[in-house]
Design brief:
Oligomer: single chain
Radius of gyration: 14 Å
Strand order of the largest sheet: 1-2-4-5-6-3
């Protein structure tokens, strides 16, 4: 899916739509975001040494998870209910393409539980367990 197709699933729009590409392969969601370097979240993080904030990486992970629930997500908003075991292993820098791989672990609608990992050039940058509610 490209950005226009992603907009049919997610309510997020420019500056908070943080996926360039999204697809699903079986039970695994794959999301990609290329860091251009002029993003609002790099402006002060950090002057002279821009690094993608961990919270933005987690948001990209959460947005990637939504393709696993594309039928349930339509017409609803997704809210975080928890972030567990978040680990940041390597920096994500301008010019990098962050690739997320996410899967659902369990669901009790309206609550859903997922796990995800993010990579740059095959190197792990972030991992976490997420929970969210569709309301």
């Amino acid at each position: 899916m490209n950005r226009d197709e992603i907009k049919t699933i997610l309510p997020h729009r420019d500056s908070m739509l943080l996926l360039d590409q999204l697809d699903r392969e079986g039970e695994i969601a794959h999301g990609q975001y290329r860091v251009k370097g002029d993003e609002w979240f790099l402006q002060g993080h950090f002057p002279g040494m821009p690094v993608m904030p961990g919270v933005i990486q987690l948001e990209i992970m959460a947005q990637t998870c939504c393709v696993l629930l594309k039928d349930e997500v339509k017409g609803k908003n997704t809210f975080y209910t928890g972030i567990d075991k978040a680990r940041f292993k390597n920096k994500v820098l301008p010019g990098d393409t962050l690739v997320m791989k996410c899967s659902l672990v369990k669901s009790r609608p309206p609550f859903y539980f997922a796990q995800g990992k993010g990579y740059v050039n095959g190197k792990l940058t972030v991992s976490a367990e997420l929970s969210f509610a569709l309301l």
